[in-house]
Amino acid sequence: MNKGCFLTIGLLVLTACTKTLNHQGKTPLVEVGDAFLYKEDVDAAMPIGVKGKDSVEFAEAYIRNWVEDNLLYRKAEGNIPDNVKIDQQVEAYRRALIMHAYQEELVRQKLGNEVSEEEISAYYERHAGQFQAEQPYIQGVFVKVPLHTQNLNLVRKWYKQHTQEAVDRLEKFSIAHAVSYDYFYDRWRPVSEFSLKLPLDALDTDPDYLNRNKNVEVRDTAFCYFLHVEKFLPKGDRLPLEYAKNEIKEMIINLKRVEFINQMKHDLYKEASEANDIIYYKPDNE
Predict the structure, then answer these.
(1) Does residue 173 sit within a domain?
(2) Which of 38, 50, 241, 267 is 20 to 30 A from 69 (CA-CA)?
(3) d(CA 46, CA 75)
């Protein structure tokens, strides 16, 4: 923040210049009760790229909000009848935060985020009905070429064939002439991806269109689009593993995390019991 900004701020706030306090190298801007707002705090909150008049306005608003919040806190603190209950809630929240931070650090150290391909595949097979496709998927090839490209009749022939010779010829042709060439016989792709690439409304309105039409050729004023569907996966069928991987990985990590934490709690309880660190008291009325 520039110096001019703080000259302006200085006219709006009163700082405790006359007190002898250790601010640990920070520059105080305003004091409310025993709370201080420092220049460094405002600098840290300043959005990146904000300069000049905008930085002055942001700083003034930030300081005003800070002052109002602290005044409201002081007022509320003196007028809440059950501070004990609030202190208990704060302490419970603090305990929960500490336990959570400790557990997460232990999980990070002991488990990490690595899940093997074997684990993912095994989970996928065990829970076959859990992963359903929310849209159709296809395997095949897609080519986009300028409308007036020579030898389009050859493209019409090659893109429909899944022979090595046809694939090689189409790939070589596409390198020289195509705007886009996508070979995906070896992996599944969502149909929605191609509804963005082809000027064909049916891909959005008819989920089963590519199951009935394996070879699609459409054109607009500039390009010709070819799409061959070798395999079709309907909506509701089992989601391809490659699209379920990330979800499965998160599930496995969470399962390991829960198992690890439960085992840790069990071990701590057993250890404390054996050391007689747990004392149960029987109520007098029992």
Answers:
(1) yes
(2) 50
(3) 28
Rounded CA-CA distance 120/255 in Å is: 13
In terms of Cβ atoms closer than 10 Å to its own Cβ (0-12, 13-18, 19+), residue 273 is exposed
Contact 133, 233 (CB under 8 A): yes
Cα distance between residue 138 and residue 185, in whole Å: 9
Taking a C-beta distance cutoff of 8 angstroms, is the pair 140, 158 a contact?
no
Asked if residues 142 and 181 have their Cβ atoms less than 8 Å apart, the reply is: yes
Number of domains observed in the structure of the chain: 2
Task: Give the CA distances from residue 141 to residues 81, 95, 188, 230, 282, in Å, rounded to whole numbers and listed in that order.
Answer: 72, 57, 11, 8, 75
Contact criterion met (CB below 8 Å) for 143 and 174: yes
- Domain membership flag for residue 268: no
Q: Render each residue's pLDDT in the chain as its tens digit; 286 residues.
A: 554 444 444 444 444 444 567 888 889 999 998 889 999 999 999 998 888 899 999 999 999 999 999 999 888 887 877 778 888 899 999 999 999 999 888 888 887 777 889 999 999 999 988 889 999 999 999 999 998 888 899 999 999 998 999 999 999 999 988 999 999 999 999 999 999 999 999 999 999 999 999 999 999 999 999 999 999 999 999 988 888 898 899 899 889 889 989 999 999 999 999 998 888 888 766 5
CATH of the domain at 222: 3.10.50
In a domain, 44, yes or no: yes
Last residue of a domain, one of 233, 259, 274: 233
Residue 286: inside a domain: no
Which stretches of 91-214 are assigned E, i.e. beta strand? Answer: 137-146, 180-190
pLDDT at 280: 84
**Exposed e or buried b for every residue in 125-142, given b needs 16+ CB within 10 A?**
eeeeeebebeebbbbbbb
Give kind and range of the element (H or E) at residue 100. Answer: helix 83-110
